[in-house]
């Protein structure tokens, strides 16, 4: 298939002297930021340098690289009608203002992921993680999101799984489906584990989070019965009640009720599983829909507040640029050396396969103009990456000694401030027992030791930043619990929604065996499928809480590998589509990230399966503890023979899963390569399922602000500044119908 | 433009944006869409429409799923 020609309406990339001057300045700012980040050793630097490096690089990448991809590679065509315009039904297909859709898309892709990964990766210092977040998003993550969005838009918003099936084959399609289901289970378990670790022994946190359930039920009834559709007002009421719940949590923690809300991790797991099951079988309007509104409002609001806070406070980074764990690979937060494990740990924020599901689901059905794909796909991912940079900042501004005391498993730091202080000193970071105790009492928690999972560290950093801007030290406890609440809220929403999606997929698969499973109204099917999904993540959650080696330590690499596996599927689909549509010479824009992603994921899987170091390799870990059991010896950090058996079972399950993921990656890439080679050898045989060209009647700007030409065009078409259907009855300037389609 | 007009415009824009992003304006869009084809078209009441919309999520929870 020949390369499609560029539509004649593609804007020319002319650079005026003024824009050359501006972009040189931006480049200088970014270079200065990178220079300071990279060259400072031993001295503490301001977070402003990190912001300069990040924002400068994003601006240049957006202006030049994303434009190059949009105009030269994808050849987006503003004369081509999008599915939203062609299939407009006023509900799911509807041309949506680009700024609104950007908001939708950003809210859908940004969750707890970018807040957790960077915090854990900070154990290797701020530099490796920051480089990966910024370089990764520019060349991999944002490209994946944008290209997937483009191809899905050209296919009426088909999902990633369907595209893999249509364009690669049933084999690749099935692998993609299994990958999505497996990652869903691991994702939910890891996110739930983050919350359990943050809420255990914290009456304040448990009370506030528990209150979100009655608040959501109230909002659900309000929207269903009292005032249907009044989303904004009910969300404002909900957020007000939520803030009250946070304040009230403080009162509860000091009252006689404190013991009732002080829960063991194991108890919390049971509650989570019960909640997850009920939430997924209750009607959507009762719990899921209102929770969704609440968490979206909180998420966007808090991220905006955090951005303002970071700019106003400009805190100092206390973590070294690179710690010794980066080279040695024996860090307490997660085991393994910098390559590949930093790139596995930070998935969301740099390259997240999950985004491909959003980019190929709801968003492509609402895009007004193909030219806006750049702003929505690439732009929203850059914004999420910035959230990850802020998470990195929050983890690096707290004392490194405190960071390691919070993020190391209990088996490493022990249970008292004295033992923790000693353990941290052995890592090469000093912190006194008094300071550890004070850090906990500042935020009115009994203890901060071994609160792994990232959320408490993030909350602590955020409370530092916020209390520096508003309220001073007296407000620290409030801000800490505000941050915990904010993370817990949308993690619980993800648990609820994810369980439903998993259930739906499972029902669909089981429907092949026994038909009634496919009907969502068949209650036994709903209950059985929900129980299987909840049981799946519940198992990993239970195991994660009871693993003597530390659940996050064991499960997070698995989550990272699963997420990067999905990214490999998405990038393989994109690369295949580029090759099949005659863009072979441009296929590197997704093939290079795919090669990197495959190298990282396969190396990590290889080490997790075959490494002889029992800290890294699941099977050598299994052998070590099995040998201990055989000789009747209890090996630390296990305390009893039961612990030893737990370790053996867990490492076997994790190792097998890891091998399965690696196998899936190889299958998808091999299958995609086969299709690509065939397309190159025999271009005549290529079948693309792209929807044929239809002339667009809509006029709308491509970017955030309309350019001078776009303003003139809007005026000539007789529509307002936000765009709309042209009223002059004229087609695009001099474009004969049918051009621009491959 | 006087500061008052400017502030009013900004407030209107924010109100519009929040209604759009939160999905509050979906019903208005549906009515406008239905009426654009046939001015006398029978449209659902807001209550019926919102019920149908949440129940559709029940049927296929993949719509509107959010990421990690």
Structure in a nutshell:
The complex is a heterodimer of chains A (742) and B (68). Chain A is mostly helical and 742 residues long.
Q: Describe it for me?
A:
The complex is a heterodimer of chains A (742) and B (68). Chain A is mainly α and 742 residues long. Helix content of chain A is 67%, strand content 1%. Chain A has 28 helices and 4 strands. In chain A, strands 1-2 form a two-stranded antiparallel ribbon. In chain A, α7 runs antiparallel to α8 (170-199) and α24 (551-580) runs antiparallel to α25. The model of chain A is unreliable at 731-742 (pLDDT under 50). By secondary structure, chain B is mostly helical. In chain B, 68% of the residues lie in helices and 0% in strands. Chain B is built from 3 helices and no strands. Chain B has helices at 3-22, 26-37, 46-59. Chain B starts with a helix and ends in a 9-residue tail after the last helix. The mean pLDDT of chain B is 86. At the A-B interface, α4, α10, α12, α15 and α22 of A face α1, α2 and α3 of B.
Order of helices and strands of chain B: HHH
CA-atom Rg of chain B in angstroms: 17 Å
Beginning-to-end CA distance, first to last residue of chain B: 44 Å
- Give a short account of the largest sheet of chain A: 2 strands, antiparallel
Number of H/I helices of chain B: 3
Number of helices of chain A: 28
Mean pLDDT of chain B: 86
What composes the largest sheet of chain B? Answer: none
Please supply descriptive tags for the structure shown above.
heterodimer; A: mainly alpha; 4 strands; globular; B: 68 residues; 68% helix; 0% strand
């Amino acid at each position: 298939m020949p390369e499609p020609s560029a539509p004649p309406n593609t804007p020319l990339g002319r650079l005026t002297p003024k824009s050359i001057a501006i972009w040189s300045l931006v480049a200088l700012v970014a270079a200065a930021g990178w220079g300071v980040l990279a060259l400072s050793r031993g001295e503490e630097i301001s977070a402003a340098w990190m912001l300069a490096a990040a924002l400068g690089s994003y601006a240049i990448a957006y202006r030049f690289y994303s434009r190059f991809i949009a105009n030269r590679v994808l050849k987006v065509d503003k004369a081509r009608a999008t599915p939203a315009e062609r299939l407009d039904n006023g509900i799911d297909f509807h041309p949506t203002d680009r700024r609104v859709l950007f908001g939708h898309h950003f809210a859908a892709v940004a969750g707890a992921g970018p807040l957790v990964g960077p915090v854990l990766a900070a154990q290797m210092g701020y530099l490796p993680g920051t480089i990966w977040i910024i370089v990764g998003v520019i060349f991999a993550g944002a490209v994946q999101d944008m290209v997937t969005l483009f191809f899905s838009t050209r296919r009426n918003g088909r999902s990633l799984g369907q595209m893999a099936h249509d364009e690669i084959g049933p084999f690749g399609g099935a692998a993609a489906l299994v990958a999505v289901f497996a990652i869903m289970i691991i994702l939910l378990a890891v996110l739930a584990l983050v919350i359990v670790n943050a809420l255990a022994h914290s009456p304040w946190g448990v009370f506030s989070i528990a209150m979100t359930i009655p608040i959501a039920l109230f909002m659900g009834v309000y929207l269903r019965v009292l005032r249907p559709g009044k989303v904004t007002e009910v969300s404002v009421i909900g957020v007000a009640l939520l803030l009250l719940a946070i304040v009230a949590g403080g009162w509860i923690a000091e009252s006689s009720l404190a013991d009732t809300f002080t829960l063991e991790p194991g108890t919390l797991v049971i509650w989570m599983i019960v909640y997850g099951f009920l939430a997924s079988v209750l009607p959507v309007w009762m719990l899921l829909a209102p929770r969704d509104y609440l968490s979206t409002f909180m998420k966007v609001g808090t991220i905006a507040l955090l951005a303002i806070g970071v700019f106003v406070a400009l805190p100092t980074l206390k973590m070294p640029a690179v710690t010794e764990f980066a080279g040695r690979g024996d860090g307490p937060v997660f085991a393994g050396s910098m390559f590949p494990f930093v790139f596995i740990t930070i998935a969301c924020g740099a390259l997240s396969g999950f985004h491909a599901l959003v980019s190929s689901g709801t968003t492509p059905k609402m895009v007004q103009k193909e030219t806006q794909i750049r702003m929505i796909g690439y732009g929203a991912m850059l914004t999420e990456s910035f959230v990850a940079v802020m998470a990195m900042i929050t983890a690096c501004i707290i004392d490194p000694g405190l960071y390691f005391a919070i993020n190391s498993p209990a088996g490493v730091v022990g249970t008292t401030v004295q033992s923790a202080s000693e353990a941290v000193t052995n890592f090469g970071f000093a912190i006194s027992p008094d300071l550890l105790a004070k850090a906990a009492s500042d935020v009115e928690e009994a203890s901060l030791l071994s609160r792994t999972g990232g959320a408490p560290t993030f909350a602590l950093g955020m409370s530092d930043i916020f209390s520096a801007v508003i309220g001073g030290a007296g407000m620290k406890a409030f801000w800490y619990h505000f941050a915990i609440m904010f993370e817990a809220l949308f993690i619980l929403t993800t648990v609820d929604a994810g369980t439903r999606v998993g259930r739906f997929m499972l029902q669909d698969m089981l429907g092949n065996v026994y038909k009634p499973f496919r009907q969502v109204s068949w209650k036994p099917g709903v209950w059985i499928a929900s129980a299987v999904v909840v049981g799946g993540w519940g198992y990993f959650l239970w195991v994660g809480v009871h693993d003597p080696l530390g659940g996050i330590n064991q499960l997070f690499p698995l989550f990272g590998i699963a997420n990067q596996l999905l990214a490999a599927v998405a990038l393989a689909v994109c690369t295949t589509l580029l090759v099949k549509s005659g863009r072979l010479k441009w296929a590197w824009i997704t093939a290079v990230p795919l090669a990197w992603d495959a190298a990282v994921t396969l190396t990590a899987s290889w080490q997790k399966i075959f490494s002889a170091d029992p800290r890294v390799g699941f099977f050598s870990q299994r052998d070590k503890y099995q040998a201990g059991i055989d000789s009747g010896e209890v090996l630390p950090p296990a305390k009893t023979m039961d612990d030893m058996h737990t370790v053996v079972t867990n490492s076997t399950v994790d190792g097998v899963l890891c091998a399965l993921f690696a196998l899936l990656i190889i299958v998808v890439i091999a299958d995609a390569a086969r299709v690509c080679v065939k397309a190159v050898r025999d271009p005549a045989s290529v079948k693309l399922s792209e929807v044929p060209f239809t002339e667009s009647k809509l006029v709308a700007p491509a970017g955030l602000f309309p350019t001078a030409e776009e303003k003139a065009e809007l005026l000539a078409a007789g529509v307002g500044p936000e765009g709309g259907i042209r009223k002059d009855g004229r087609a695009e300037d001099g474009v004969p119908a049918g051009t621009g389609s491959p | 433009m006087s500061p008052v007009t400017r502030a009013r415009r900004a407030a209107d824009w924010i109100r519009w944006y929040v209604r759009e992003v939160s999905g509050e304006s979906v019903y208005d869009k549906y009515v406008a869409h239905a009426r654009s084809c046939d001015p006398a078209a029978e449209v659902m009441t807001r209550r019926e429409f919102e019920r149908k919309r949440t129940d559709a999520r029940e049927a296929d929870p993949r719509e509107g799923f959010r990421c990690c």
